[in-house]
Amino acid sequence: MKVQFELNGRLVQTESAPGSTLMEVLRSRELYSIKHGCDHGECGACTVLIDSKSVNACLILMHTVDGRKIETLENFSDHKSMHPIQKEFLHEGAAQCGYCTPGMILSVEALKRERVELDDFALRDALNGNLCRCTGYVKPVQAGLNALKIPQDKGGGGS
Length: 159
Ligand code: FES
Ligand code: FES
Hints:
Layout: E1 2-7, E2 10-15, H1 22-28, E3 47-50, E4 53-56, E5 69-71, H2 84-92, H3 101-114, H4 120-126, H5 138-148
Parallel strand pairs: 1-5
Antiparallel strand pairs: 1-2, 3-4, 3-5
This protein binds FE2/S2 (inorganic) cluster (2 copies).
C-alpha cells in the first residue's frame, strides 16, 4: 500500500504493509524520539503531531495518514538550538530518564496551537495521556505552564 504524507516538512512516500502503524514506520526511519512503549495507546511515549493534534502513533494505521502532515520532536530542533518548550523542560529539570519527555513536549505544543484558553487545567488535561514514572509530574507541569506563556510565534512551528 502506497502512502504519501508530509513528515517534518518533507514529502514522504512509503510502501507500507497492511496493518503497519505510524510508530513502526517512523522508528524505522530512525525517528527515535518516538518511543515504543505500551503499544496500546496507554502511555503516550509514541506521541506525534498529525495536523497539529497530538496522537499516539502506535494506534495510527498507515493508510489513515495519507495526505496528512506529521511532526515528530525531531522537527523542533536543528541540533544547534532547542525549541522553547524543550528549554523550559530543561530549565525546570522536568526530565529524568527522558523516556516520556518528547511526548510531553509535543502535547504542550499541540495545546499551544489550539489557542484555547491556556491554563493549568487545560495543561493537565493535555498531559493526561503522557505517563511518567520518574518525575511525579510536578516539574513537567511547571515547565508546561512556563511554555504556555511563550508567544506562539516564538514557541515553534505550526502557526
Ligand atoms: S506506545 Fe503508543 S501509547 Fe504507549
Ligand atoms: S522522565 Fe522518566 S518516564 Fe518521565
